[in-house]
Specification:
12 helices; three-stranded antiparallel β-sheet; five-stranded antiparallel β-sheet; alpha+beta; 342 residues; single chain
């Protein structure tokens, strides 16, 4: 679809005005906004042509026009100029991650929360566990006479722990035996290799003691699965309730935001540095009036996860995208430094 320079400018101005005001745009208001002198009649003709092309829509109760989802797509792909972050904005993001001995999980959660506050949209942050991630160490720490804390530490810096009750009384020799047994057979193995089948084989190696140590092995399996699945945080879901276009689907949207599998499908990793899904490009019916902007973050050369913003189709893409990219860049850098220290 080819548009001449003036029609492109008209479309761009309509999109930016509607993002700013949330109100249908008239030809007169647009003529006052345009950089070069053209009459309202000329702009009205251009708007009529854009409407015929399916790039604009007309709400039933208004004489103005709003961008269609296709109009937004042309704007994002051809017309949008992202707004560089100011030094103050960069400092604010840097300050968020400027913590001593940062917890990787907490960093992801904080990133999602800060982005939700800044964008007034819903956000999600996830990690992707590469197949190269291995079990670095397993630690069994006594917490009571028949209670232990099981820790699994992975080579990507993730630490998972869980309290486990055991059917025997603990002493130093037993704890030492379990630690040596687990580390001798688990340390150095890929997290994805720690399956039920593999732990069944370990259990068999314990012979008559297998039933005694089964709760600990089951806990190790659960923690390895959690590491392999990666981390997942959402924030700002209730921000979506403030947009009138979501009034009819608010409940379904909130349910989607709380469902890990549904949301991972929405922000599925793409090859694009920044992936934008606009309106009806989303396959879920409750999300036909939403846009999803996702970028990946890296630790070294590995793709470690994604950060996404979910909001109305009329979100301010030019403002949100640079913030999302800088968040991802800073998060990857801090996580890399954290894991190197470990």
């Amino acid at each position: 679809m080819k548009l001449d320079a003036r029609k492109l400018q008209v479309l761009g101005s309509i999109v930016e005005t509607y993002i700013e005001t949330g109100e249908p745009v008239s030809s007169k208001s647009l003529a006052d906004r345009m950089d070069f002198s053209v009459s309202s009649a000329t702009i009205r003709n251009d708007m009529a042509a854009l409407f015929e092309m399916g790039l604009l829509e007309q709400p039933h109760t208004s004489a103005g026009r709003i961008p269609s989802h296709l109009g937004y797509r042309i704007y994002v792909d051809q017309l949008m100029h992202c707004k560089p972050l100011s030094e103050e904005e960069r400092r604010e993001i840097d300050a968020l991650f400027n913590v001593r001995d940062p917890d990787p999980d907490r960093l992801l959660e904080d990133a999602a929360e800060a982005l939700a506050d800044y964008t007034n949209c819903a956000t999600v942050s996830t990690t992707i566990t590469p197949k190269s991630v291995r079990v670095k160490r397993v630690e069994i720490v006594p917490a009571g006479l028949r209670t232990v804390v099981v820790l699994v530490i992975a080579t990507n810096g993730v630490i998972k722990d869980k309290v486990c009750r055991v059917p025997f009384s603990l002493n130093e020799q037993v704890v030492d035996f379990v630690n040596r047994f687990c580390n001798g057979r688990l340390a150095g193995r890929s997290v994805s290799e720690i399956t039920q089948k593999y732990l069944n084989a370990l259990s068999a190696a314990l012979g008559e003691y297998s039933a005694i140590f089964l709760p600990i092995l089951a806990t190790v399996l659960e923690l390895c699965r959690e590491i392999n699945e990666g981390q997942f945080y959402t924030s700002g879901s209730t921000n979506l309730l403030g947009y009138k276009e979501f009034s009819d689907v608010a409940r379904q949207l909130l349910e989607t935001m709380q469902n890990r599998n549904d949301l991972l499908g929405v922000i599925a990793s793409k090859d694009d540095a920044v992936f934008i899904s606009i309106g009806k490009e989303n396959t879920r019916s409750e999300m036909v009036d939403t846009s999803v902007v996702v970028t990946k973050y890296h630790i070294g050369n590995q793709n470690q996860g994604a950060i996404g913003v979910i909001g109305p189709v009329r979100m301010d893409y030019a403002r949100i995208i640079p913030h999302l990219q800088y968040f991802a860049q800073t998060l990857g850098k801090v996580l890399a430094e954290t894991f190197e220290e470990e």
